[in-house]
UniProtKB/TrEMBL annotation:
Compartment(s) of residence: Membrane
HMA domain location: 23-86
Organism this protein belongs to: Rehmannia glutinosa
Gene3D superfamilies the UniProt entry points to: 3.30.70.100
InterPro entries: HMA_dom, HMA_dom_sf
Protein name (record): HMA domain-containing protein
Topology in membrane: Peripheral membrane protein
Amino acid sequence: MGALHYLSILCPATSTRSKRKSMQTVEIKVKMDCDGCERRVKNAVKNIRGVKTVEVNRKQSRVTVSGFVDPNKVLKRVTNTGKRAEFWPYIPYNRVQNPHISQVYDKKAPAGYVKNVQTVPMANATEETITYLFSDDNPNACSIM
């Protein structure tokens, strides 16, 4: 132990190994029509280094990959199969504040899901009317003065 410790101090070895990726779940939207498409996408993704599980849901056009992987690498591998793919753009319906806004609601979304967009909170109607009551544009706004 003493000799190895002494040599390790004299010759510090720098590791050339890359930092290990964190465990991630990547969801991708891929249009799959048949069993062959589903099998081709699943086989392409499961051969990536670091993949633990691959779940394919053809009804929702969704591929879920879990493991120590890079999301962009998974997306690239799926697009190399000849299928048009994108990251899963939907979130559950109950996690959105206003799910019926035109930018959020999507007819193509699976049941129980809406589009994942960041909406800017709009002023409600009472704030607008109060602002209009004390506006210079409205000559009849304030009769107190």
